[in-house]
Design a protein that fits this description.
456 residues, alpha+beta, OB fold (Dihydrolipoamide Acetyltransferase, E2P), 8-stranded mixed β-sheet, 16 strands, 31% helix, 23% strand, elongated
Length: 456
């Protein structure tokens, strides 16, 4: 079905005066004395194409009965418009491809985000979600281009795994067992013969690949059965995880900084109209905030110093802070929004509050780790240098009472040509929330999976 994208129609002055065909969904219609106006959108951009129908043309009279949401194919001549839009299509032929009856839920009014979540199969047709998912696509493209431009290999790590990377017990179990077999927790008869689950991270397998190819990144779905019902938590999310061999903590900090700056700069250029929409309806000052990320220096702050700043701030935090406590969102936002007014890497956290695989610092108390905090949100990236010393890693696994056999292959990486290496994890949805100003993670995933919600 040959036709021209509406986005291209609205951008190209060369098409004025020419006969073209467009396809799209009817957003709204209105009547005047002699003509009827249809607004069409095919999802290729935010702007609609106004289609003008001469009421005296009996062949087009059926258009008056088309409901909002109907799919149409329209052929006509593109002309300059006397109205607010630059061009309009003078219809000569209209074909109804798929009718939408009066029960179509997206009528000509502003719907709440909660209502649209219940109709996630249709919400991509609204301006908000047209913009959200267009930016999501552009952001994903920019991420891939950044890593490929630096010689990284894109690898796919397993979705089904036998290990819990974070050691937090938040894995979704994958099993073919049922009834008594499942109650006995005897996995010898299970599909894999061992306990299995959906991955919470591709990091461990990513390390194996990095210790063969030097620079790799993964970009895929991860899952976390975390019993959190907050605007920032989802059970399924997409994660970017680069791993770099022969790199220390400060090498990976530089990579994370450059990636964030690069992909945001790219989206500022490629999604100008979408970001203007978000600034108008969702976050005032959004574009200035994003431009600041691209232009400002990123600070590096020791965890110890961050704790002292917070303790001496005079603020009444809900969660008191002291050395050894994990920083909460209120602490993170105080540091970036009030103290530094810029992105901050907090480095060298106590080992007790970080994962087993992070490299122990010479002080024996902290690990070579960092979180990137950004204004308005708090943490968006977690990174670390990985422990490359076999004895230290084995001891850490013992201390945490983890099953050594589950990590035998991971320990082999330290037996056979171990090398310093580092990496980070960045949730696409968290970054997308920051870039669009959307305040709920449910509104940046096409079909969100959250606690108690599996509608589609």
């Amino acid at each position: 079905m040959e036709h021209t994208d509406i986005k291209d129609v609205l951008k190209s002055a060369k098409l004025v005066g020419k006969k073209i065909t467009v396809c799209g969904w009817l957003k709204t219609s209105r009547n005047s004395k002699s003509v009827m106006f249809l607004e069409l959108n095919d999802g290729t951009g935010l702007a609609n194409l106004q289609t003008v129908i001469d009421k005296e043309n009996q062949a087009l009279s059926a258009a008056a009965s088309y409901g909002v949401g109907s799919a149409l194919r329209v052929t006509g001549t593109l002309v300059k418009s006397e109205g607010a839009q630059s061009v309009e299509l003078r219809a000569e032929e209209i074909e109804l491809l798929g009718a939408a009856d009066s029960s179509y839920p997206l009528q000509k009014k502003r719907h709440s985000l909660e209502f649209l979540r219940d109709n996630a199969h249709l919400r991509g047709r609204t301006n908000t979600f047209n913009a959200v998912f267009r930016v999501r696509g552009a952001l994903s493209k920019a991420i891939h281009e950044f890593f490929w431009s630096r010689g990284f290999l894109y690898v796919n790590t397993p979705i089904i795994t036998g290990s819990d990377c974070e050691g937090a017990g938040e894995i979704f179990r994958v099993t073919t067992l049922s009834g008594e077999q499942l109650l006995k927790k005897d996995y010898s008869e299970d599909f894999f013969g061992v306990k299995a689950g959906l991955t919470v991270s591709g990091q461990l397998e990513g390390e194996a690949m990095a210790l063969a190819f030097s620079k790799i990144y993964t970009f895929g779905p991860t899952f976390r059965a975390e019993n959190s019902n907050t605007p920032r938590h989802a059970a399924e999310f997409w994660q970017i995880e680069p791993e770099v061999a022969f790199a220390d903590l400060y090498d990976i900090i530089a990579l994370a900084r450059d990636m964030v700056k690069s992909v945001i700069a790219d989206v500022l250029k490629s999604c100008k109209s979408e970001l203007e929409f978000f600034e108008k309806f969702y976050e005032e000052g959004l574009i200035e905030k994003l431009t600041g990320i691209v232009e400002k220096d990123f600070k590096i702050l020791e965890y110890r110093d961050a704790v002292e700043i917070l303790k001496n701030s005079g603020e009444s935090f809900v969660y008191p802070v002291s050395f050894g406590t994990d920083l909460q969102t209120e602490h993170e936002r105080y540091l970036v929004d009030k103290v530094f007014r810029a992105p901050v890497f907090i480095v060298n956290y106590p080992k007790e509050i970080k994962s087993f695989y992070m490299k122990l610092n010479p002080d024996g108390i902290t690990v070579a780790s960092t979180d990137l905090l950004v204004p308005g949100v708090g943490e968006i990236i977690g990174a670390s240098q990985r422990e490359d010393n076999l004895e230290l890693l084995e001891q850490r696994i013992k201390d945490l009472k983890m099953n050594m056999e589950d990590y035998r292959w991971y320990l082999d990486l330290r037996r056979y040509g171990s090398a310093p290496h580092s990496g980070f994890g960045l949730g696409l949805e968290r970054l997308l929330m920051y870039v669009t100003g959307m305040s709920n993670i449910r509104d940046v995933a096409p079909f969100p999976r959250t606690k108690g919600n599996l509608l589609f």
